[in-house]
Amino acid sequence: MAEPLKRTALHGSHLDLKARMVPFAGWDMPVQYAGILSEAAAVRTRGGIFDVSHMGRVYVSGPQATELLEWLQSGNIGNLRKGRARYSLVCGEDGGILDDTVTYRLEDERYLLICNASNRDAVLQWMGRWRNEKGLQTVLEDTTLTTAMIAVQGPAAAALMDELCPQQPSKLRFFGSMEGEVLGSRAFIGRTGYTGEDGFELVIAAEDGPRVWEALRDRGMTPCGLGSRDVLRLEAALPLHGSDIDPSTSPLEAGLARFVNLKKEFAGGDALRRQQEAGVDRRLVGLLPEGRRIPRHDFPIQAEGQAVGRVTSGGWSPTLDRTIAMGYVPTRWAEHGQDLQIDIRGNLVEASVAALPFYTRKRS
Amino acid sequence: MNPTDRKYSKEHEWAKVEADGRVLVGITHYAQDQLGDIVFLDLPSPGDRVEQYKKLGEVESVKAVSDVFAPVSGQVVEVNPELAERPDLVNDDPLEKGWLARISSDTLEQDMDNLLTAEEYEAFLESEAH
């Protein structure tokens, strides 16, 4: 813990904006600027920008890059077309989730892997281990510290990106990507995000970061911190590694089976096939609690007076104007409409199991 | 920013003696700013007894839940009825429309003496910042 906090290329911009800074996964990051709820509302109605430079950015290349990633990812990599990306899990051999990642295929044997800041070292080690064990010719290039990454999210994002980028990123489909220029700076652009809204993620050289950030702000994008990012991703029921999923949970329990191809060979695949056959004992469910007390991570979930699980994420949803939560409960309690209770610091609050996600954007 | 018509606690509550001798209490600008967006307040019921520096209630913000402490001892006469529907009033106007409770104190003078003047509170904030 003695290690000093890392700073993103945009750190100075955050301080200029008087952002409230917090330590997050070893980085000094903005949790909010004007306020969490107003930032969340900006993303749902117009557009916001997030510094996501703390996320790991690892280029995987070499003649056997595909083979390595196919083994490490729960989803298909080999059939991913160039310029497309896939959300997928990296599992341990027991099927537990080491990280959730987005893999962009750039060339036949060149990929950009985005992993969580807190798992960057673990993922790099895991990849390095299997590369050596299988003797695969692959180069791992971690560019996290030399690049900046900005998420531009919201209904106004596509038109704005077209203004700033001659390659017209609005042509991209969801989970498509391109290389281009943003304001004259070389950029990698993916139509991805973590808000449940349309949007883009840009990777640019660290030195270009502040200029691009300022330009986006000048054009009306609201600076948004980790606080609103968490609100938005929970509304969209996008899992947070370390809260909703972790090495002790499996993709099948977490409702992420659609990102797992059980027909292929991959790390953790055997364990997950066994789990699929036996059936899972618990499931990650959505919960709609009564009242305005906020259920938070680790609060107990009860059924018929017995503790049956724990909240993994919970919060106030400004878009739904109510509290929302997710948590694991035994399969027999996981049916939609099931009445459960959450113990919020001694207050037993009624909560019913609800379909996920809580929020889906209207597609035009 | 911190008016001199009231006194303050080191836990960032304020207490203002009204014309009839009852005490209006709330949280300071600094407190609401630290808490961030407030979505729920759990406050005592009229008739409940509260003690100076002991828990008055809880404030639930988007980020976290925090205890609020009573700046004076006494009996709760009223809690702000607006806050059930508009908890954000505490963010928008913590010193006026966002008051939390009205307390009838039997140890008024002594309790108010224990609290900080606006000047002392600001010096305290200053010392906390360093």
Please specify the SSE layout and strand pairing.
The complex is a heterodimer of chains A (364) and B (130).
Chain A: H1 11-16, E1 20-24, E2 27-32, H2 36-45, E3 48-51, E4 56-61, H3 65-72, E5 85-91, E6 97-107, E7 110-115, H4 120-134, E8 139-142, E9 147-153, H5 157-164, E10 177-182, E11 185-190, E12 199-205, H6 209-218, E13 222-224, H7 226-235, H8 269-278, E14 282-289, E15 300-303, E16 306-317, E17 322-330, E18 339-344, E19 347-354
Parallel strand pairs in A: 3-13
Antiparallel strand pairs in A: 1-2, 3-9, 4-7, 4-8, 5-6, 6-7, 9-12, 10-11, 11-12, 14-17, 14-19, 15-16, 15-18, 16-17, 18-19
Helix pairs in contact in A: 2-7
Chain B: E1 7-8, E2 13-17, E3 23-27, H1 29-35, E4 38-42, E5 49-50, E6 55-61, E7 65-69, E8 74-79, H2 89-92, E9 101-104, H3 108-114, H4 118-129
Antiparallel strand pairs in B: 1-2, 2-3, 3-9, 4-6, 5-8, 6-7, 8-9
Give a verbal description of the structure.
- The complex is a heterodimer of chains A (about 375) and B (about 130).
- Chain A is of the alpha+beta class and about 375 residues long.
- Chain A has three domains: about 10-55 and about 145-235, Gyrase A, domain 2, CATH 3.30.1360; about 55-140, Alpha-Beta Plaits; about 285-364, Aminomethyltransferase beta-barrel domains (Elongation Factor Tu (Ef-tu), domain 3, Beta Barrel), CATH 2.40.30.
- Helices cover about 20% and strands about 35% of the residues of chain A.
- Chain A is built from eight helices and 19 strands.
- In chain A, the strands form four sheets. A six-stranded mixed β-sheet of chain A has the order 10-11-12-9-3-13. In chain A, strands 14-17-16-15-18-19 form a six-stranded antiparallel β-barrel.
- In chain A, helix 2 packs across helix 7.
- Chain B has about 130 residues and is an alpha+beta fold.
- Chain B has one domain: OB fold (Dihydrolipoamide Acetyltransferase, E2P).
- In chain B, about 25% of the residues lie in helices and about 30% in strands.
- Chain B has helices at about 30-35, 90, 110-115, 120-130, and strands at about 5-10, 15, 25, 40, 50, 55-60, 65-70, 75-80, 100-105.
- In chain B, about 40% of the residues are buried.
- The mean pLDDT of chain B is about 95.
- Classes of the chains: A alpha+beta (about 375), B alpha+beta (about 130).
- The interface between A and B is medium-sized, with 15 and 12 residues.
